[in-house]
Each structure stands twice: as C-alpha cells, then as structure tokens.
Amino acid sequence: MKALAILIALTATAWAHKPSDAHLALAADGTRVTGRLDVAVRDLDGALQIDDGDGRITWAELQAASPRITNYVRSRLAIDGCPLELGSAQLVNLSDGAYWAQPIEARCARAPRALVVTYNLLFDLDAQHRGLIHVAGQTLIVRDGSPVRVELGAATSVGSFVREGIWHIFSGIDHILFLLCLVLPAVFQTKQARWRAATSMRDVAVEVLETVTAFTLAHSITLVISAVGLVSLPSRFVETAIALSVVAAALNNLLRTVDARWAVAFSLGLLHGFGFSSVLVDLGLPSRELIGALLGFNVGVELGQAAIVLVAIPLLYAIRRTIAYQALLWGGSGAVVCVAAIWSYQRCFAA
Questions:
Q1: Which residues neighbour 30 within 8 Å (Cβ) at sequence distance 6 or greater?
Q2: For residue 65, how many other CB atoms are within 10 A of its CB?
Q3: Going by DSSP bridges, is the β-strand pair 97-107/90-94 parallel, antiparallel, or unpaired?
Q4: For residue 351, is pLDDT > 60?
Q5: Which of 260, 265, 326, 333 is positioned for an S-S bond with 215, CB 3.0–4.6 A?
Q6: Average pLDDT rounded to a whole number, residues 28-45
Q7: Phi, psi for 152 (deg, rounded to 5)
Q8: Whole-angstrom distance, CA of residue 287 vs CA of residue 297
Q9: What is this structure's pTM?
Q10: DSSP letter at 186?
Q11: Which domains, ranges and CATH numbers included, belong to the chain?
Q12: pLDDT for 294-350, tens place per residue?
C-alpha cells in the first residue's frame, strides 16, 4: 500500500502543469517608473475564482472581477519608496495563453539607482510559480516573496540562472529518475560474461563519469540549438519523449540490452536538452541576455547533476553486495518503468 501511494505521488508530481510565469516589465526615467504586469488569466482564476463555473473565462467575468484583481495585485506587489498606481488592464496573448496586462506607474521621492521590488503573487497557490522581472536589459527570476534589488543599467545576473538550473534539476523528478537509472547499474558490472558486484570504486567512478559526461554533452547541444531558435519542437512531443526516455533507461536496467550506458545517456539525453531549453524560451529573453542565461543555466544543471551523483554513487557502492541493492536495481527499475509509462500516456493524450 505504501509503495502504491509513492507511485501515485510520483505520477501526480511529474504531471503537474507547466510552472506558471508572470512578467513584470519596468523602466525608470528620473523619478518616474513605468511598466506592465502580465499575469496568466488561468492563474488569476485560481487565486480569485473568476470563472462562473462553465469552464470559460469571459471578458465580462474579468471586468466584473477587475476591482478584486487590482486589490490582489496591489497587496502583493510593491517598489520600495515608489508608491504604485495601477492602470486599466487589457488582455494579451502570450505563448501559453491569455494574460491580464496591468499597466503600472510609480513616482519615487528621488531618482533611484536601483529598484527594490517585492513580488508575492501566486506563490501560496503554486510552489513552482516564477515572477520574471525585466528591467533595463536584465531579467531576474523570483521564486518567493522576498524583496529583490534590481540595479539599473546592470546586465542579467548569470548567478540567478545558475540557481534556476539547480532548481530545475532538483524539482524535475523525471530528470532525476533518468539520471539515477543511468548510474544505478554502475556498481554491478559485467566480468567475463557474468554480472558481479564491482570490485573497484575507481572503475565505477570512470564509468559514471563517462555516462554523465555523455548526458551533459547531449543535453547541452540540444539546449543551445533550441534556446537560440534553430530547432523548435512542440512541448507535448518533448515532454512525452522525455517520459519515454525514462522508460527506456529503466527498461535497459532490467534487460541489459545496451551495456554501454554512455551511449544510452547521449542518445536519450538529446531529448532532455529540449526540455531544459523550454525554461529559457518561456522567459522571452532578448538575444543580448541569452548567452549569459544559457551559460548560467547549464552550469546550474551540471551542479545539480553532480550533487545527485556524488550522493548516490558512494551509497550504491556501499550496498552493492546486498539484497537491498538487488531490490533497488530490479524492483526500482521496474517501478520506474511503470511510473514513466503513465507519464508518457498522460503527456501525450491528456488535455
């Protein structure tokens, strides 16, 4: 029963909807700050129950809810020393649907060198929500209600995208399971046509390094070509393919069809790069910010991967001769096949 509960939880976690984003674009001119806040209509409905129950959110419903939306925004958005005035909103269509676009104007006591922005929308409803603050050629990613300082005239912080890459790995259960399926058999190797527990930590480390390097190279290639717009694939196809790659990696542990796991890591890792790129594409970064964002995000992904591997491999090596490891290798891989197969179906056919 406990195993079934875990299986259901993993399935639900991996099929959560695309993390919601809201965009706050600001420009400072002397003591005057102007801009616009774009929030997805579906997210506002989740926070304020705008729909009358028929499943369609109409412009009339949005207009009727306008005072509540304005109060909601006013209570959760602020710029230190610059009182906000909210203008009349309109609807705009972005890549993932309709957004409520609210003009913003503020007057500061003196011309600021930096803006201290407190953004606290939707975090209580969606732990994966991102507030994307665009100011004077830079983009900052906000994941909680803590105030952020935006230096006017500065470039996009590479560090913020390093953190985003780390967060993306640790929050992406499909990427984690894929990586663990790749390294799980490394401590149970073939010797003279027989499978035996590894006798050398060095041999294990070399194999894991080859596997992780192949995965890194593969997803870096497709991350770059997708993020710069050379190749664009439908999100449904990419997410379904990633789930199927997890099925393939776990199934290979059971059948041992391809023992060269670096080849499995490279070929299937190409799919994961397209998934990683969606994080950057959704930001709508201008080309001048893209190189730093790509570099920082990829470094963050690698740091996240390294942390997982550095924890997993010593533990697996320590238990490699035990029944617990055999249960993990065979039973765990079998469970992953089932879970990832469900993800594949959901991602391909669910509305």
A1: 111
A2: 19
A3: antiparallel
A4: no
A5: 265
A6: 93
A7: -70, 130
A8: 15
A9: 0.73
A10: G
A11: 20-154 (no CATH), 161-349 (1.20.1250)
A12: 888 889 999 999 999 999 999 999 999 999 999 999 999 999 999 999 999 998 886
- Report the interhelical angle of 173-183 vs 333-349 (nearest 10°): 140
Triad 252, 243, 231: Cα angle to 5°: 110
- In sequence order, which ranges of the chain are alpha helices (DSSP H)? 2-14, 41-48, 59-76, 158-171, 173-183, 201-227, 235-255, 261-281, 287-318, 323-326, 333-349
Q: With beta carbons less than 8 A apart as the criterion, state whether 276 and 297 touch.
A: yes
pLDDT at 44: 94
Instruction: Check residue 284 and give its pLDDT.
Output: 65
Going by DSSP bridges, is the β-strand pair 77-79/32-40 parallel, antiparallel, or unpaired?
A: unpaired
Residue 128, CB-side half-sphere exposure with 13 Å CA sphere: 15
The first and second tokens of residue 333, run together, are 């891989």
Q: Is 251 exposed, middle or buried (0-12, 13-18, 19+ CB in 10 A)?
A: middle
Contact 99, 93 (CB under 8 A): yes
Q: What angle do CA 189, 193, 199 make, to 5 degrees?
A: 35
DSSP codes, 287-351: HHHHHHHHHHHHHHHHHHHHHHHHHHHHHHHHTTTSHHHHIIIIIIHHHHHHHHHHHHHHHHH--
Of the ranges 156-170, 281-295, 334-348, which one carries the lowest mean pLDDT score?
281-295
Q: Who has greater pLDDT, 67 or 4?
A: 67
Q: Is residue 100 a contact partner of residue 44, using CB atoms and an 8 Å limit? A: yes
Q: Of 222, 219, 199, 195, nearest to 304 (Cα)?
A: 219
For 175-232, the pLDDT digits (tens) are: 899 999 999 999 987 654 567 888 889 989 999 999 999 999 999 999 889 888 788 8
Q: Are 232 and 215 in contact (CB under 8 A)?
A: no
